[in-house]
Design brief:
It is a single chain. The two termini are about 25 Å apart. The chain has one domain (about 5-279). It is mostly helical and about 280 residues long. It has helices at about 5-20, 25-35, 40-60, 60-80, 85, 90-115, 125-145, 155-170, 175-185, 190-220, 225-255, 260-279. The longest helix is centred in the C-terminal third of the chain and has 30 residues, at about 190-220.
């Protein structure tokens, strides 16, 4: 993989990880167009970690507060405080609880579904179909989301459902950010809060997925001679991810989320036509 291809794939990963248009689906197509079907494990891990860095940069204050709250919760529980009381003392601790509740179904579904959908990552037709589903979810949320409930009032059931939606996004073409933001909107979350929770929820998902790949990465080692392309791809994913996060907030505030639904439908039509023509 050369530097140009690495930068393009890194930029695609960063943009589409947070824009609600599906990173996995776009990477399948980008690799096909660039004639770079090989999925080098070390490269994939690095560009995914790059998107996590982008979230940490944008939400560094939130992450610092959440980490401090998590440490305080553990400390309180160690001293004999009940879990319910430890998690409910302030709004930040409650957000930690919501992230934990949402992460559990995501992790379980990811482990269960990933082997089942692995073969779909070589299918352009599957990507096209799931892009249609992504567009429908975005359209429904944009029309039905009330956008009045603050994150502090999101219940455990809502957080769990957002986690389930995130778990379903293991399928190529089904957007993780689109699924989680849309589910938040359907539960009445304010638009900024739905996006913020989605992005914060991506941190444990990305880090957890990367950790699962770590044993294979250590065993295989970093691909020799690819230091420059890998570094370029990681930097591209950080920059594009940072830009994408701000674009999502801007679209939500201007009530232009429907633009992403239209885009996914147009993209799905092109991809399905491409797949059928190739068949």
């Amino acid at each position: 993989m050369d530097v140009v291809k690495a930068v393009i794939l890194g930029a695609v990963q960063g943009l589409t990880e947070f824009l609600p248009v599906s990173s996995s689906g776009h990477l399948v197509i980008a690799r096909e167009i660039l004639n770079a079907p090989e999925a080098l494990l070390s490269f994939d891990v690095l560009v995914h970690l790059g998107t996590a860095v982008a979230v940490l940069l944008v939400f560094r204050r939130d992450v610092a507060r959440l980490l401090a709250a998590a440490i305080a919760i553990v400390s309180d529980v160690a001293r004999g405080t009940g879990l319910a009381r430890a998690f409910s003392r302030d709004e930040t601790r409650r957000t930690v609880l919501l992230i934990v509740v949402a992460s559990v179904p995501t992790a379980l579904m990811g482990l269960a579904l990933e082997p089942l959908v692995r073969g779909l990552f070589t299918s352009k037709l599957a990507v096209g179909v799931f892009l249609v589903v992504t567009g429908l979810v975005l359209w429904l949320a944009d029309r039905a989301g009330t956008g009045r409930v603050p994150l502090s009032r999101l219940g455990a059931a809502g957080a769990f459902c957002i986690g389930v939606a995130q778990g379903l996004a293991v399928a190529p073409g089904f957007s993780r950010s689109g699924a989680t933001i849309s589910t938040g909107l359907l539960f009445g979350l304010r638009r900024d809060d739905a996006a913020r929770f989605s992005f914060l929820l991506s941190i444990p998902v990305i880090l957890g997925a990367s950790a699962l790949e770590l044993p294979d990465l250590v065993r295989m080692g970093l691909a020799k001679g690819f230091a420059a392309p890998f570094l370029a791809g990681a930097i591209a994913s950080i920059i594009s991810g940072y830009v994408a996060i701000h674009l999502v907030f801007s679209a939500l505030r201007k009530r232009r989320f429907m633009v992403f639904a239209v885009y996914t439908w147009l993209a799905s039509a092109a991809v399905i036509a491409w797949a059928l023509a190739g068949a």
